[in-house]
Structures are given as C-alpha cells and as structure tokens.
Amino acid sequence: MNHREDEKLKAALKQALPPMADVELGRDLWPQMLRKLGEQAIRVPWWDWTLAALVASSFFFFPKAIPVFLYLF
Amino acid sequence: MELLERFALGDLEAFETLFRQFQGQVYGWIVRIVRDSGVAEDLTVETFWRIYRARARFDPAGNFGAWARRIATNIALDHLRTVRSEVELPENMPQSQSPDPAVRRDIRERMERAFQALPVKLRVPATLALIEEESYAEIAGALGISVGAVKLRVFRATRLLRKKLKRLGVEP
C-alpha cells in the first residue's frame, strides 16, 4: 500500500464525510449547564431512600431504639 | 486567588468563567468525533458536568483545556459505543466505476457506511487523523495513548476500511 493510495483513500473519505472543523457552537450552553447542576443538586440517590425507609421501619418495630438513635446522632 | 484554584475549590463563578471560555473548544472537539451538532451540545454539557464533579482532583497548575479535552473524548467515545451501528455490510456487491453523479453518490454512501462500521476504537483516531487532519500528538493526548498507538490504530483502520470497501465493490 503506497502513499498515493493512502492519499486517494483520504480524499474519498473526506468527500463522503466532510470535515466538521468549521462547525461552530451556535448558542451559549451555560443555561443548559445551570439546569443540569440544579437537577443533580436536588436528586437523592435511591440507596439513600432505601436507607431512610429501613431506619423508619426499624423505629416502627423497635420503638426503644429511638432514644438510642437520638443519643448517637 | 487564581481562576483555576477557585474552580478547584468549587467556586461556581470560576466554573462559569471557565465554561464560557472553553465551551466552544470542547464542543468543536466533540462534534469532530460524533459528527452531530445536537448530540455534541448535549455531550459538551455532560463533559462540563463531569469536570465540575471532578474539580477537586484537578491540579490548578495543570492545563485545563487538555484536561477538558480528555474528558470530552472519553464521553464522546462512550456515546459512540452506545449508539454503535449494528448494520452488517452486504457481501460482494457489484463494483461501479461510473461517472454518473447518482452512482458517485452511491459510492460515497457505501464509503460512509463502511467507515461507520469500523470499531469505535479505530474509527475515532481515523476520523481525527484522516478527516479532521488533527496531529497525531493531539489525538494521542486526547485519547490518553502514545503517538505510536495512534499511528497503529489509524493504520489498522485504513486496512480494515479497504477490506470493507473491496467487499462493497468500491475502489477509492
């Protein structure tokens, strides 16, 4: 495979898939970024909910654990 | 305090300044890889989201642009892997060397399909090197591999592309 063949392939490739180097960002993405930051800040992971549910149910079945919990935390 | 130091400490204003300064560059890099402007916008935001989350690991003495480009490349690669085309190329299609524009368009389409069918690991360095004409050093930095590894991947991509094109009856 010689250099000339490589150049031919490159040219054909560029015809089929034109370079995107001139494509510029048409708008400011900061508002979208802020929305994402806000969404992620208030999102509580599922395991946190599971843990909270386990703690709440343990209080229901073992009410004597409440003072111990309050003392520890 | 310097901008990068403030960013590393979690200052949102510093992050906004960096975002506005680098969003164009990051977008420009991602769009070269994914070749879709809408997707590139979403991935740019995703990149900066990961940058913000990883701010504590950033060394303020380092190069923010290079770090951002590396993260952007990983995100673009992950995206291409998830949307990867499963189209199988047909075997032994008739060869056409006609000057007819319709036939030439058909050849271009086959060429595009053959290229998109390359594994992402080979397609991305080939896209950046052969189509976008980025330097091997730039590509190596963004992919986190050596220049030699980039050259090897581009070589393997070219060889595989020739095989696929031959199967499709296209001689570039």
How would you describe the overall organization of this protein?
Chain A is mostly helical. Chain A contains 4 helices and no strands. Chain A is elongated, with a radius of gyration of 30 Å. Chain A starts with a helix and ends with a helix. Chain B is mostly helical and 172 residues long. In chain B, 71% of the residues lie in helices and 0% in strands. Chain B contains 8 helices and no strands. In chain B, helix 6 packs across helix 8. The interface between A and B is medium-sized, with 29 and 33 residues.
SSE diagram, text form:
The complex is a heterodimer of chains A (73) and B (172).
Chain A: H1 3-16, H2 30-42, H3 46-61, H4 65-72
Chain B: H1 3-8, H2 12-34, H3 37-53, H4 64-82, H5 101-116, H6 120-131, H7 136-143, H8 147-167
Helix content of chain B: over 70%
- Mean pLDDT of chain B, rounded to whole units? 88
N-C termini distance of chain A: 72 Å
**How many helices of chain A does DSSP assign?**
4
Query: Greatest interface and its residue counts?
Result: A-B, 29 and 33 residues
Structural class category of chain A: mainly alpha
Principal-axis shape of chain B equals elongated
Order of helices and strands of chain B: HHHHHHHH
What gross morphology of chain A would you assign? Answer: elongated
How far do the termini of chain B sit from each other?
56 Å
